[in-house]
Amino acid sequence: MRIKLLPENPNYAFLSKRMIFYVFSSLLVASSIAMFSIKGLSYGIDFTGGIMIEVKMSEPDQIGSMRSTLSQLGLGAVELQEFGTSDDIMIRLQAQDGGEAANQAAVNAVKKALGDGVEYRRTELVGPKVSDELFLNGIYAVVSAIMAILIYIWFRFEWQFGLSAVVALAHDVISTIGVFSLIQHEFNLTTVAAVLTIAGYSINDTVVVFDRVRENLRKYKTMPMEQLLNQSVNETLSRTTMTSFTTLLALVALYYFGGEIIRDFAFAMIWGILIGTYSSICVAVPMLLHMSVERRSGEDDQQAQEQQS
């Protein structure tokens, strides 16, 4: 028996509800910007610089005694956080004056203070200069990807399609940052990689719908634009939802069973798949209705209908 997420020939009136989508998306973007301005992001060690040590203790519920022990070392700000279970602890130390040698000395001091019976799973040292470069490179990567996508869509279709696609991508990126600001998940280079992956996935969905729009523009020269866009969305809806659904199955499994190290990446991807699918259907395509999209010469409506029959 086949699994059907949608009817054989869906006919949902997406375009008639575009004002609802516009209001929702505007509120989502505005709240994301406000959340980022107020709370900011919980930047990872990649962007803040300093020391991050992931340890597994021999016994659970030792975070209180560990905090008391490490605060006496004189290493500045020390943050401890349970990392999955109560015996997995993430230790964050501020960057030490004196460069890499001072940071390594701080790591050794932590190991000595914690004593035996501790499994050190990960140790990362990032200097402030390196963290600033990584932060700027992350911004450059996201902006460059969006601009490259704009140019690609512009040349493949028309400038109206490119502008619509970039608006939808900006919507996805800003909302993702807003969600990370709201829940204060760690935002690091892995998250930036997830944002870039989201952009690629979202534009893939958008291009599929745009291809059908372009094809229908050539077939139905007299069909009202709203009806044509709605038909194009419905004709690609099954493919879009099935692809997103199967991808989400893998990501949910990765989120729950992939370990803490890639959990933030998986979470960003899950959100990105959902919001990217939404923006492709409910933001990018409806925006074409407000732009002067040219109809290419091609078959007339009657001929197209005869071919389809």
How would you characterize the overall build of this protein?
The chain is built from ten helices and six strands. It is of the alpha+beta class and 309 residues long. The protein folds into two domains: 15-43 and 131-308, Multidrug efflux transporter AcrB transmembrane fold (Up-down Bundle), CATH 1.20.1640.10; 50-126, Alpha-Beta Plaits (2-Layer Sandwich). The protein has a four-stranded antiparallel sheet with strand order 3-4-2-5. Strands 1-6 form a two-stranded parallel sheet. It is elongated, with a radius of gyration of 25 Å. The model is unreliable at 297-309 (pLDDT under 50).
Structure characteristics:
single chain; 309 residues; alpha+beta; Multidrug efflux transporter AcrB transmembrane fold; Alpha-Beta Plaits; four-stranded antiparallel beta sheet; 10 helices; 66% helix; elongated; disordered C terminus; protein-transporting ATPase activity; Protein-export membrane protein SecF; transmembrane
Strand order of the largest sheet: 3-4-2-5
- The dominant shape is elongated
CATH topology of the largest domain: Multidrug efflux transporter AcrB transmembrane fold
Number of strands: 6
Low-confidence stretches: 297-309
CATH architecture field of the largest domain? Up-down Bundle
Structural class: alpha+beta
Task: Encode the helix/strand succession as letters.
Answer: HEHEHEEHEHHEHHHH
